Amino acid sequence: MGRVSVNNLQEGMILEEDLVTPGGRIILSRGAVLREKYIGMFKVWGITGAYVKGEEDGDILQKNLLREESLGQSEAYVASYFPPSEGEDRRVSEVREYCTRRFAESIESGVLPPPLPHRTLPPRPPLGHFGRTFSARELGRNQVRLVSFPDIYFKIQEVINSPLSSATSIARVVSKDPSLTARLLRLVNSSFYAFPQPILSIPRAIAIVGSNELTSLALAVSTMTVFEHVSPEYVDMKSFWKHSIACGVFSRLLAYGKRVRSEERFFLAGLLHDIGRIILYSKSPAEMTYALELSLFERIPLWQAEKRVFGFDHAAVGHVLLEEWNIPEGIRRLCDYHHAPLDDRAPEEAAFVHCGDFLANGIRFGTSGTLYSSPLDPAILDYISLAPGDVESVLIQAERQLQEIMNIFLVA
Ligand SMILES: [Fe+2]
Ligand SMILES: [Fe+2]
Questions:
Q1: pLDDT, tens only, 251-301
Q2: Ligand 2 centre from 367 Cα, in Å?
């Protein structure tokens, strides 16, 4: 136990003794957990310090010094891919501050984030570079022939679209796939939903979550198996899905915050938003390497480099794939415009996926390859009704769900 002066008191510290004003009035009792709002009032009440469990000024000073150093390193790291700009929107700065604190913590625990590679020479196009002679449609279609979408999804859709569909008939189809059943049940019982009672069967899940939502989730779970065969030489699929899951979780939470109906489609759109990139990596590795090098040299987002190299980006390739797979148009359009949510043709709700992608790239939870993001337009934050001060709570809540969802989707 030690005495900690008021300037060093922090939220979460536990009082070892009653906290008393100079006039003898007890403000907080022994065992109370300090909250930011109390600490702000201490000086007003004339309190100069408190006895708290396991802390004293000397230790805190040491910790703060360490923290300052790692904060400095982390700030420089985050600014390397997410640079501050003049007159920046407060909410955008809050995202950067959150990322900075997050990396400072990991630096303190000994995990240094890998620095961004620098390129001083412009990259050369690969030999035989096909320029713009390939189309997104050709690339997507060729891939569809090679990759079939899991049958289970179409079977569920068939049952749902049938006039005789019932929760029991949907449950019968889902239950034929034990791994899908297990994952769906884990998902509906996770903190993602936070239902007060455990859901122990698929019919119950359908009754509570709804059949459309459950189809979206079944599709989400099935998606993971589609590109299992892609060689790690082209793309790290685990990191790719981590990024996609993060985008899905963020997009869903942002939509939920604005009370948008059926948020499941945002989770699914997050999972699918970059899927065209897997095809670019595996079908045109030389051109994709060139695009990556170009994005590093010019410090531009990878999708912009893709447009320069191919004449289209991964969203265009993904569009073809999702169309061929009969993914509902509402979800497809969210993916189509995830890099252009302010386009005249874009559905307004693409803003959620765009922002979800920005946050997923900001915290570096997995990656689909991009190292630089386009600046986040405040008009998008206005549309999704994200107020100053909301950013941190969304990010904290999402991170809590992320690990859980990751375990459901990526651990067999
Ligand atoms: Fe993207
Ligand atoms: Fe992305």
A1: 999 998 888 877 788 999 999 999 999 989 888 888 899 999 999 999 999
A2: 7
pTM (two decimals): 0.80
Which ligand has an atom closest to residue 335 CA? 1
pLDDT at 384 over 80: yes
CA distance 136 to 22: 73
What 3-state class would DSSP assign to 163? coil
Task: Tell me how far the alpha carbon of residue 274 lies from the centroid of ligand 1, in angstroms.
Answer: 5
Rounded CA-CA distance 10/379 in Å is 35
Ligand nearest to the CA of 315: 1
Ligand 2 centre to CA of 356 (Å) is: 8
User: What separation in Å is there between the alpha carbon of 338 and the centre of ligand 1?
Assistant: 6
Contacting residues for 78 by C-beta, under 8 A, at least 6 apart: 96, 99, 100, 103, 362
Separation of alpha carbons 172 and 211, rounded Å: 13
Ligand lying closest to the C-alpha of residue 361: 2
Question: Given pLDDT bands bounded at 50, 70 and 90, which one contains residue 183?
Answer: confident
> What is the structure's pLDDT at 355?
96
Percent of the chain scored above 70 by pLDDT? 92
Q: 239 Cβ partners below 8 Å, 6+ apart?
A: 366, 367, 368
Q: How many CB atoms lie within 10 A of CB 113?
A: 16
**What digits encode the pLDDT tens for the residues 100-117?**
999 998 998 888 888 888
* pLDDT tens readout for residues 13-44: 889 889 888 778 888 888 888 887 778 778 77
Ligand 2 centre and the CA of 244: distance in Å? 7
Expressed in angstroms and rounded, the spacing between residue 392 Cα and the centre of ligand 2 is: 20
**Distance from CA of residue 3 to its chain's centroid?**
40
Nearest ligand by distance to the CA of 276: 1
Q: Which residues 6+ apart lie within 8 Å of 211 measured at CB? A: 160, 165, 167, 170
- Cα–Cα separations (whole angstroms), residue 83 to 64, 93, 295, 299, 338: 25, 10, 15, 11, 21
Looking only at the bridges linking them, the beta strands covering 19-20 and 26-28 are: antiparallel
Full set of structural domains in the chain with CATH: 2-55 (3.90.105.10), 61-108 (no CATH), 136-147+227-410 (1.10.3210.10)
Q: Report how far ligand 2's centroid is from the alpha carbon of 361 (Å).
A: 7
What is the rounded CA–CA span in Å between residue 214 and residue 265?
Answer: 10
